[in-house]
Write a structure and sequence with these properties.
The protein is an alpha+beta fold and 180 residues long. It is built from 3 helices and 13 strands. The protein is elongated. One of its GO terms (molecular function) is rRNA binding.
């Protein structure tokens, strides 16, 4: 049995959860999220405690059990306190700046790279080399952070590029000169 799926989800006071058919709507002070529930899974709300259960013991049902519980838990937490990911731009001359609602990256290309605003996600800049991605939907925040990182992945030889805060890039050794 899924250990993750068995755990109940406690819903705090400012959050309300409504379950209709196979959709779960979570509303809180920061907004509202809708989660589609697979037909193999049932979600019940009893006095502020959500229980996620599966209808049978098929492999697909077991896989979706813990996933659905985690998605609902992330929604319940996200509408109270936004999820955030922090990124750093490393490299000499590498920087990021905000122009209107877009971010403009200078990361060693012959041109600047513009990253547009994404609905439901807030992009903030600290200094000229730190970006904070935040929002109520954990999946969307992670996806936007991954897209920003993909603009210039960290170089394995010098470590230049965009990386998550605290990420360790293991540098490869360069070519060694032959000795006579």
């Amino acid at each position: 049995m899924s250990k993750v799926g068995q755990s109940p989800i406690t819903v705090q006071d400012p959050v309300s959860v409504s379950i209709e058919n196979q959709t779960c709507t979570v509303t809180g002070p920061l907004g509202s999220l809708v989660i589609d529930i697979p037909r193999e899974i049932t979600v019940t709300n009893a006095d502020g405690v959500l229980a996620v259960a599966r209808r049978d013991d098929l492999l697909r049902s077991k896989a979706l059990h813990g996933l659905t519980r985690t998605l609902v838990q992330n929604a319940v937490l996200g509408v109270v306190k936004p999820w955030e990911k922090k990124l750093e731009v490393h490299g000499t001359g590498y920087r990021v700046k905000q122009m209107g609602e877009n971010l403009v990256f200078e990361v060693g290309y012959s041109h600047t790279v513009e990253f547009g605003k994404v609905k439901g996600v807030t992009l903030a800049i600290e200094g000229n080399n730190k970006v904070t991605v935040s929002g109520i939907d954990k999946q969307r925040v992670g996806e936007v952070a991954a897209k920003i990182k993909a603009i210039k992945k960290p170089d394995p030889y010098k470590g230049k590029g965009v990386r998550y805060e605290g990420e360790v890039v293991h540098l490869k050794a360069g070519k060694k000169a032959k000795t006579a």
